[in-house]
Amino acid sequence: MTWEPVAGPSAAADAAVQERVSVVIATRDRPADLRRCLETVAGLDYPCWEVVVVDQSDGPLTRTVIAQFAGALPGLRHLPVTERGLSRARNVGLQAARGDIVAFLDDDCTVGADWLWFVAGAFARHPEAGLLFGTVRDALLDDGTYVPSHHVTTERELAGVRSAARARGIGAGMYLRRRVADRVGQFDVRLGSGASFLSSEDWDYTFRALRSGATVVETPTVVVDHHGGRPYAGGQAARLLRGNAYSHGALHVKLLRCGQPGALLLIAAELWEHLRLLRPLAGLAGGPSNAGRPVSYARGLLAGLRAPVDRDGMVFREGGAIAGRATLPRLGSPLYSGTRPFREPVSAHVQRSPRRRRHRQRHRRRDRPRGRGIPGPAQSHQRHHASHRRPRGRSAL
User: Fold this and answer.
1) Alpha-carbon torsion 116, 121, 122, 127, what sign?
2) With CB atoms counted within 10 Å of each terminal CB, which end of the chain scores lower, N or C?
3) Domains and CATH numbers, the chain
4) Going by DSSP bridges, is the β-strand pair 145-146/76-80 parallel, antiparallel, or unpaired?
5) pTM (two decimals)
6) Interval 79-131: pLDDT, tens
């Protein structure tokens, strides 16, 4: 079922009881972006709200910026944390939030003065909604820069896990009812910026919300402007897109391992989409071939198989085979249009395992010559070193 876009703050929000809203902003060492964000947040005219800034910064500049807005934002709370990762920061903010609605806002986004009125209005029009996504606009409008954005054209509802494949909302414009968060749980800490898998935490939470019975709404009436972009020159944008494909692959396998057979359809659809976007002729001409995305997605599938999973919570367990942040591609490989594929760290005990030693010994035996007079690689290697041990000036015979 769909609704027509609303031009201004919804009349339903004016008639409904004004719900308390907690604005949660995660930031790390981007004081200039945070200042621009808080300047627009300070202009909000909603009557009942608070701001929670979860600070993962290493330096003191972020703390200085937050302190400068203490007077303009009476409900401002600063929560410094040492653990890294966007999902961790959102979990901290979600736990600290006191509002009925939690509005997640990235530190490189800006909003209008009536932003929270539109959020409250959308939830008032859909009282059954537990999760809401709005439009995220490209604020840079630069053809040479990729800015993650999402344009909602028509308001719609999603219900049930089968509708998850049609969910397109992104975390920069994500709004959540607190009671639904208590049912769904926390964000998967191994997904999202700063984690092992660098994105997909928003879609993962959407799937789990739909599985819990919550309704997800996408609406064009709630708008934020996104200023964070990656230039296409130098491969930064392509690297970000490959990271997204890698995370999608791990997420889809996680769902399959958690007893969701519909993930097979998601995997097939994702592979088909990546193959459809291949441009081999463009790659030969020096342009982007998009070959790195399906390869990165396949590597994400394999990484998701190795990562430990909590099936009850439908999240990755911390630690395990791929603990830590995934290694991003580097420049130098023509197959990946200027990068090389992801490499997962291999623990030392795996490298020195008895199975690997037996494997090496078998290959060494294969290199030995079967007949006389034909030296094998091992014999040639020994003769080479023996020649260096012969005394100079005299014959070895």
Assistant:
1) positive
2) C
3) 2-230 (3.90.550.10), 234-349 (no CATH)
4) unpaired
5) 0.76
6) 999 999 999 999 999 999 999 999 999 999 999 999 999 999 999 999 999 99
